[in-house]
Amino acid sequence: MKTRPHRRLSRGFTLVELLVVISIIIVLAAMSFGVIGTVTKRQKTVETQATITALSQAMDAFYSDYNRMPSVGSSGDEMTTEGQAGADLITILLGKEESSSEMQNPKQISYLNTKVGKTKAKGGLIYSNGNKVQGLYDAWGEPLRIKFDDDFDDEISDPVTQGKIVRQKRFVVWSWGPDKKFGDNDEVKSW
User: Which residues form the signal peptide (predicted)?
Assistant: First the structure.
């Protein structure tokens, strides 16, 4: 009598095969999270650089037209783009000052062209109470920082790198970057 070899019919995956496939999927997913984080950080850095460039160009254009920087009552040579002084600066650069004999941008030229954001946390130009400027923020939700050459010697001490001088600038604009801290080389700068 002949016996036939007993063949096992395969109707699915074994437990080992399923575990191997799940492990591969988990490893690929973990690798993609790192890539997504890097891409997001880069995108926010580019967005912040665009905002800094727009503000710098607006301030340069204002200076070209009026031969002075806007006066917003900030104390010292540094300020941010939020709070009363920051909102006043942005309002002047947008050409949205209330009409008066003390207007700093009497031509009402809109020098600043930047993204309008919905929330401070996502960055951009933020309005509150309808059409009132709240501030201008980087992609991480922090106000931009500005330092002026208040003694008009074409030199500004570098606010990011101690001991260095930025030359041939009336002002510099920067953001602390993704970690929102000073001095770790992830700052986004106008110089």
Answer: none
Give per-residue pLDDT as tens, 38-76: 888 899 999 999 999 999 999 999 999 999 999 997 777
Mean pLDDT of 162-176: 95
Q: What span, in angstroms and rounded, lies between the C-alpha atoms of 85 and 73?
A: 6
Kindly report the pTM of this predicted structure: 0.81
What whole-number distance in Å separates Cα of residue 136 and Cα of residue 54?
11
Give the C-alpha separation, 154 to 41, whole Å. Answer: 33
Three-class DSSP labels, the chain:
CCCCCCCCCCCCCCHHHHHHHHHHHHHHHHHHHHHHHHHHHHHHHHHHHHHHHHHHHHHHHHHHHHCCCCCCCCCCCEEECEHHHHHHHHHHHHCCCCCCCCCCCCCCCCCCCCCECCCHHHCEEEEECCCEEEEEECCCCCECEEEECCCCCCEEECCCCCCCEEECCCEEEEECCCCCCCCCCCCEECC
112: number of Cβ within 10 Å: 24
What average pLDDT does range 76-94 have in this prediction? 95
